[in-house]
Amino acid sequence: MIAAGAGNPPINDRLTELKAFDESKAGVKGLVDSGITKLPQIFIRPPEELAAGEPSPGEPTPIQYRIPVIDLKDVAGDRAEVVDRVRDAAETVGFFQVVNHGIPVKVLEDMLRAAREFHELAQEVKKEYYTREMMKKVKYVSNFDLYESNYANWRDTLFCVMAPEPLDPQELPPPCREVTVEYSRRVLVLGKVLFELLSEALGLKPEHLESLDCAKGNTILYHYYPPCPQPELTMGTTRHSDPDFLTLLLQDHIGGLQVLTPNGWIDVPPLHGALVVNIGDLLQLMSNDKFKSVEHRVLANHMGPRVSVACFFTLHLHQTRRMYGPIKELLSEDNPPLYRDTSLKDFIAYYDSKGLRNHGNAALSHFKLTG
After folding, report:
1. Over the stretch 38-56, which tens digit does the pLDDT of each residue have?
2. Which residues, other chains included, contact 95 with Cβ-Cβ below 8 Å and sequence gap of 6+?
């Protein structure tokens, strides 16, 4: 068992604890099952962060920083109004929720159930999927950045790279095999609609972002946040922005997702049947900062387990020679490029090397032009 403590352990002790946790292949769920009542030291936030008082409620939030809910059934009617609402959300808070998005509620509920069922399998069964191998298309792991982060997050994850190359369903764990294939198919359809709206919000033709392969690939992540004995000392997910074009998130009823705004952290309230949409780092880069990839986090909680399913629109592991930079049609003498072109491989490699430990769009900052 990894021992708990009050201060930061020596580096060698910390590495030993990290390796012991990793090699157990039992994840955070395994710690909870063992009956711990205090957090292992590797999960405790640094003293300076704890002293700052976070997580804490933000100041009263003006209406422009609330998370909008956009009804996609209106696309067939007043499309211009929907585009305006998408543009406003993408340019300010970087987040919105969508309803009437075409994915049946039963499929959403089945996805959440599959997340719970996989993560609550016997440890011996789950261990077969546990790996840190970068190119593995289906893998279970706790903290992708375990050895790079300042502290570990109270979360386990099953990664499933579903597109652009078809995944053999037999590679998926049985509890989520059928529904993951179904959800991925439906999410790709929804993604095309969203990228059309985002293209129009940038003043481009509807098919522009799709023509850049933004809607081509998706990776589905099943997150599991067990109840935490000392949630005030750690985080479910450290503050970060996403290294993709766009993220769709399905969250259960427990809540805990927060977005950083100029007025502090605000909640993204669970809304039955809705999906949360947020702009990724690559879309901020391509829009030349017109759209905002905003930092967000997940609080740890006494309640649980909390489960969520994230879909990252990204080519990630897929080999492509395409370079990504600010879209030329958006540039002018008054709006020069703010970023250099990059390959997805280089962008992801840099993001992963930093993990979630750096705040302030650290990955994007690395690709900014200077002077």
Report:
1. 999 999 999 988 887 665 4
2. 67, 89, 259, 268, 276, 277, 278, 279, 294, 296
- Longest distance between any two alpha carbons in the chain, whole Å: 62
- Which backbone phi and psi does 353 adopt, to 5 degrees? -70, -25
Q: How far is CA 273 from the centre of its chain?
A: 19
Does 5 fall in a domain?
no
Indicate the number of domains in the chain. Answer: 1
Between helix 177-201 and helix 79-91 the angle, nearest 10°, is 90
Domain encompassing residue 115: 11-366
Does any domain span residue 101? Answer: yes
Q: Give the model's pLDDT for residue 50.
A: 84
Amino acid at 334: D
Measure the CA–CA gap between 180 and 33, rounded to whole angstroms: 27
Domain membership flag for residue 139: yes
How do residues 122-133 score in pLDDT, each as one tens digit?
Answer: 999 999 999 999
Is the pLDDT score of 285 beyond 50? Answer: yes
| CATH number of residue 224's parent domain | 2.60.120.330
205, 153 contact by CB (below 8 A) = no
Instruction: Compute the distance between CA of residue 292 and CA of residue 366 in angstroms, rounded to an integer.
Output: 16
Residue 67 has pLDDT above 90, yes or no: yes
- Give pLDDT, residue 61: 46
Choose among 293, 295, 280: nearest CA to 239: 295
- In a domain, residue 341? The reply is yes
Q: Which of 342, 343, 331 is nearest to 368 (CA)?
A: 342
Instruction: Tell me the C-alpha distance between 210 and 222, whole Å.
Output: 25
